[in-house]
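The record is kept unedited without comment:

——
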Amino acid sequence: MRTINEAPMLRLGDRGPAVEDVQHQLNVTDRGVGNSHVWSKTDFLEEDGAFGALTLNKVREFQQVSGLQVDGIVGPKTNSALFNPQADRVDQAQGTAINWTLLARAAVASLQAWVHALQFGRSAPAGNLAIFVEALRVHFHIRLPGPPTPGAVGGRPSANALDLLEADDRLRFIHQVFDDVDFVLQSASIRDGRVFHSVGVKQAEVLRMGTLSAANAPVPSRKGPIHLICFPPNFAITTRPDVFRTPHQQASTVLHECAHYVRPPLEGPAHVADFAYGLPPFAGEANRRRTSHNYQQLTADEAMHNAESYNLFAEHVTFGRDTRFGRLSDDLATFECGSKETCG
């Protein structure tokens, strides 16, 4: 889906949890640090979710001190200023996710060229082909022969012709997803309200985001629900042990949610869902919501429709390793063993 949805605006007369979140942010911002800085001429707002005259005046005052257009409408720029820590983190994560996506798309193109080389007796493409083949096996469960080792004696690797045709078809789908994700990432802007949207605690509860760090969710607007990638306050957290949101994890979240956004449920069998996440790694441990099997147990068809497969494939080709067990150290032998009990 190459639709670039725009975030809704809040204005006089609106009601609901989104207005309540704006009122709360206006009150928090007005208090300043240690109550030492107060910019508003009006009293603190009652956080009742009703965008009335007092809220309108307070929005205008905030816009004036923030150097924004003073129109009393909470549009994308005012919204991102009110939720500035979220917006800052999204900007950083978006840039990283763009880089990962470009590398992933190039890796898939190399894998397509490798399939064609195997089919028609051509030479292997340049680049880190061995890493790409391994990433394809681990994250999409598609097996291709590895490239010939330089200096090795022996013939070219071979594969079943039907398997190569099937791999080529799946790679075309995967490449298109990464191409669409790249288009969205290049077009999205939380500052301008395109695709990305900051929400507060109350609206996150209504959108059923719970403790998630982001979600592709239908946001109410005057024209009806708009699907956006929404970021609640905990997306900006990087230090709390129970949340543990590092910059790289934030980039992973952005790429993961973009995979949902470009293949939404309305696309039927092309929908990119959450079959399983990269962790936990061991067989028999269920995904936290919908499935009864984990990442290792996905079929190839499930994996190519699984959002986390796209994220982890992109990380794998970027860092040159499977990152599920950390970017600085791996335990792939234990992972590939498939069970805590049978690993020696």
